[in-house]
Description:
This protein is of the alpha/beta class. It has helices spanning 15-26, 49-55, 63-75, 116-119, 148-156, 173-184, and strands at residues 2-7, 33-35, 78-87, 90-98, 104-108, 129-132, 135-139, 161-166, 187-192, 194-199, 202-207, 211-213, 219-222, 229-234.
Amino acid sequence: MKVAYLQFNPSFGQTRENIDRACGLMASAGADLYVLPELCFTGYTFTSRPEAWGLAESAVDGYSISAMTQIAARSKSAIVFGFPERSGNDLYNSCALVLPDKKIHVYRKLHLFLDEKRWFKPGDKPLAVYDFNECRLGLMICFDWRFPEVARSLALLGAHIICHPANLVMRQCQNAMITRCLENRIFAVTANRFGRETRGLFDNIFTGKSQILGPNGQVLESSTDDKEEIRFADINYRESEDKSVNSINNIWADRRPEFYFRSDYGEKRT
Length: 270
């Protein structure tokens, strides 16, 4: 499978322009799976909830959903991208997995970061894994990297690849994702943006350095922190089905879950 990430610096609020730029980059790659950044077509640095609401869209028939659905169908590829989701009276920081048959799967970010808590509601959907050409894809967004339970849950659900749209401002993530892949023997594609977005009192500097990782934690492809580009790797996703560390140890068979979730761990010790 040919997997790719798109790293770019979107113009805030210019949804159609950003989609056109992304489409231009994707047109020449010929990948099976594309992963784009978090909130990649709207920008990230909102100054109010009404502003975020005005740029949000429905996961059913929103503009970016419709555009990516058409591209996925035409290219016979799967596309993962982040968008602000409007659902009833609620806003979510979401990402969509759009498949060539026009099926759409949506994940809502479980772990909101800093000012995201001002605009968005925490995700309310369980973690899940989705099939694409016999490959199983798991979804997580940006700050979810800080919680190892997310990657572990997706791996236990049978994911071959974690698709990770991001707008990273903390510089530890890329190394942490190497650990996530190593401890779960899984592939991961982190698509991050780069550049600076200053709006009102809010200022964000994004770290770039998108990457594709293998199940031994190896970096298969990576970018710098300041370049717009699409990069890809040809992978055998079934390598992530082998959970052996050596001839004796297996990270699934050796788990001791009966000791991991004791109810008294959180009790105050005296």
